[in-house]
Design a protein that fits this description.
about 350 residues, alpha/beta, D-Maltodextrin-Binding Protein, domain 2, 2 domains, three-stranded antiparallel beta sheet, 13 helices, 11 strands, metal-binding, DctP_fam, TRAP_DctP_sf
Length: about 350
């Protein structure tokens, strides 16, 4: 109220009266007192991927005047990354921040909200999620499988790389017998090519490459992969990230905890997570060109996959998506919704955006 007093001291009586009447008319925000522990799946130091979790926690505290305090716990400090969904649903912790694609073994349709091979670009996915019913579908998907969580999109980044390899990928036959860490639906695609696919958290990948537990890996953006040290062991970084044109992360909140919050608190969470999503995307897009420009001095070769290989991967992807749709009603419903939007979006994209070489 100090700034209002200043207006009343230095301004006219009419201005003072108008300001004070407005202050009385505007109801104060009723923000619930919250003290949450929030385990995260990624190191908060990873730009764009992990950093939005800290951004969201800081903004919630600042915007609530300290009423909401969310303490971020780094991977494995409180909960292993792959257990975040379960502990939040069970109420052992009130919130978590994760890439929900890790839970595809529990919820078949969940990767569609995390990363879709040959799918939407990040801003187009955001459009479908916010405007095309994606947010509500995600809540329904969790409920249908018995998980008691509320999910808010709270971070998104651009395409990953197609992985780090010991030698160039010359044909799809090179996947046969390859021991590789690969996530999400893309992992099912390359399994069809004979790859031995394993899943492990990002913090374990450097050691797995170093020891030869895996021959190759994908994880995230060039900047993040370099921070994790992959370029020190394997020197071929493949592009484009056909398996993850976007990577979406979410704040999961225990459903009972969320339902007990007031509307103002829910709105604050929603708005902060929307801001964190935008912040994650801008952070992820800002530095990648400079990282790739520095590959040469680190002895790294960037290989762009030939079109014929991408065409075959897309065909295999369509097979996998059809198989998954036939097995799970939620998968079919969400996938058809996304495809309908993507088909229309391509018209806009094709007419509206400049060619990439101009």
């Amino acid at each position: 109220m100090d700034h209002l007093k200043k207006i009343c001291t230095t301004g006219s009586k009419a201005a003072c009266a108008a300001v004070l009447s407005l202050a009385v008319a505007l109801p104060a925000m009723a923000i619930d007192k919250v003290r949450w522990k929030m385990p995260v799946a990624f190191k908060s130091s990873l730009p764009g991927l992990g950093s939005p979790s800290v951004f969201a926690a800081e903004q919630l505290e600042q915007a609530s005047g300290g009423a909401m305090k969310v303490k971020v716990f780094e991977p494995n400090k409180l909960v292993p990354p792959f257990e975040i969904l379960s502990v939040v649903s069970e109420g052992k912790v009130k919130a978590g921040y994760t890439w929900i694609g890790y839970d595809q073994g529990k919820i078949p349709s969940i990767p569609l909200f995390a990363a879709i091979p040959f799918g939407l670009k990040p801003w187009a996915y955001m459009s479908w999620y916010y405007e095309g019913g994606g947010h509500d579908m995600l809540q329904e998907v969790y409920a249908n499988k018995g998980y008691k969580v509320h999910a808010e999109l709270c971070g998104i980044i651009g395409p990953e790389t197609a992985g780090w390899y010991k030698k160039p990928l010359e044909s799809l036959d090179d996947y046969n017998g390859l021991k590789i860490r690969f996530a999400g639906i893309g992992g099912k695609v390359i399994q069809k090519l004979g790859a031995s696919v394993t899943m492990m958290p990002g913090g374990e990948l450097f050691q797995a490459l170093e020891k030869g537990t895996i021959d190759a890996t994908e994880f995230s953006l060039p900047q993040i992969d370099q921070l994790l040290g992959f370029n020190k062991i394997v020197k071929y970084n493949l592009f484009p990230g056909w398996h993850q044109p976007f990577t979406a992360s979410y704040m999961l909140i225990n459903k009972g905890e969320y339902d007990g919050l007031g509307d103002d608190t829910k709105a604050l969470i929603r708005n902060v997570c929307t801001a964190a999503t935008v912040k994650g995307l801008t952070t992820s897009e800002y530095n990648q060109g400079a990282i790739i420009a520095g590959f040469g001095e680190k002895g790294v070769t960037a290989q762009k996959l030939p079109r014929d290989i991408l065409v075959k991967l897309k065909s295999l992807t369509e097979e996998v998506l059809a198989e998954e749709s036939a097995k799970d009603a939620d998968f079919k419903r969400v996938y058809e919704s996304q495809q309908a939007f993507q088909n229309n979006y391509k018209l806009w994209e094709g007419f509206a955006y400049l060619p990439s070489d101009l």
